[in-house]
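Exercise (ungraded).
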Amino acid sequence: SQTIHQWPATLVQPVGSPLSLECTVEGTSNPNLYWYRQAAGRGLQLLFYSVGIGQISSEVPQNLSASRPQDRQFILSSKKLLLSDSGFYLCAWSGPSGGANEQFFGPGTRLTVL
Amino acid sequence: KNEVEQSPQNLTAQEGEFITINCSYSVGISALHWLQQHPGGGIVSLFMLSSGKKKHGRLIATINIQEKHSSLHITASHPRDSAVYICAVVTGNQFYFGTGTSLTVIP
């Protein structure tokens, strides 16, 4: 069966510090991978999606970047965090038809930038 | 104006009641998703629809493509159904999310 892991579960970082959140998927090959953010009191926002290794599409210009060094690994990064980067970050995967497939979400990382 | 509008924003029901959550969208879509987010933050995909109706246990989701509207129904609601329900639509590579409906079911 397929599983999706995210870590860390919670993170408190000072403004200006770097960020690295990791997401890995098991039990499937060539998944589409997604990073979402949910800011406090707001809806989900798609940040990045990837259809394959090294292929990243950005939906929203921002202070963040994403990378996919391996088929089932998706990393969200920042060189210098802003206060506005605080939120709940979710990784998800789906089959290769993208949004027309069911999405499976990881447990999320709650990031607080102070 | 948001591409996806959900109503109501908040809903309180007595256990056993029939519940309907509505989603209207303004863009052409290839798929619509209903998601459930529990208080801890975890999200579970309930349905993915491109037409018609789907049923899973006590949950039913319908979509009317011509009217650009979808509904999520919960029959015989239970306190464990308390969660935020999120509608999301997909057009091309774009995802648009509603802000969610917070449901509380009282025993």
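Further reading is listed at the end of the chapter. For now, observe: The longest strand of chain B covers residues 83-91. Chain B has no helices and eleven strands.
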